[in-house]
Description:
- The chain has helices spanning 2-38, 48-58, 62-75, 97-110, 141-149, 165-191, 195-227, 251-297, 323-332; strands at residues 84-93, 114-122, 128-137, 153-163, 228-236, 308-309, 312-313.
- With 333 residues, it is α+β, with helices and mostly antiparallel strands.
- Strand 2 (114-122) and strand 3 (128-137) form a beta hairpin.
Amino acid sequence: xxxxxxxxxxxxxxxxxxxxxxxxxxxxxxxxxxxxxxxxxxxxxxxxxxxxxxxxxxxxxxxxxxxxxxxxxxxxxxxxxxxxxxxxxxxxxxxxxxxxxxxxxxxxxxxxxxxxxxxxxxxxxxxxxxxxxxxxxxxxxxxxxxxxxxxxxxxxxxxxxxxxxxxxxxxxxxxxxxxxxxxxxxxxxxxxxxxxxxxxxxxxxxxxxxxxxxxxxxxxxxxxxxxxxxxxxxxxxxxxxxxxxxxxxxxxxxxxxxxxxxxxxxxxxxxxxxxxxxxxxxxxxxxxxxxxxxxxxxxxxxxxxxxxxxxxxxxxxxxxxxxxxxxxxxxxx
Length: 333
């Protein structure tokens, strides 16, 4: 019986193995057909996808670059905006100052700017000179500067650029922090119940609001200076004086210098005498009044009297005669 059961088991297993083998062969056949369809008919062994990729590489891979570029554009960081204060100073010689000034006004206003300050004067010969401050948008700065330089003969030009990006970023950060601080103080005021706490919070709120307003004013100033460039334009009708040639001094130059020094010294002496002359005249007048009017009217001092004693006046000493006179008297006697 065991032999018959084993035979039945073997006979039942064989059809199952045969069926599994048929299914495996069918799967392999289907896989081969699909691989044959995907592969090229030239026998190179490359699939259509591989050929497309190689063709794209040969042509520069525009599709791949576009895809990579789009992905990179979405992931690349935004570049930081630079905040720069631009200033310039121009000195231009023109034939007609009012006409050149009107043209400068028109150029600035057409660019979206305005005239900030203006001052006009005339020299000794009646030639007009004008200095005007122009504010123009930064985008039109170079264009307006070129137009102003072409108004006449450019004598001097100075341009400066100051990067204040760090200041702008710092002020913006401090403003955000200050606003959050003010908001917290207001929340605490809403929750405060004691009067002392309310008074303290109001003082703190006033201080922080003042700091916030100061930061906002600084931010507005930076924004104004970075968005509008400042151009100081000087227009003049006076010609430029050429500098004299620097040569070594000669004998004539030495004589001329000495004469100039002598004339200068003489001029200072005359000036000094002229300055002292009123005092000398006053002193002379005082001396003259003293000698002519006051001194004659003063009482004179009496002559000194002869000395005397209790026994009488002292004898006066007789003068001793000269030897010649004594001899003459002897002869007379």
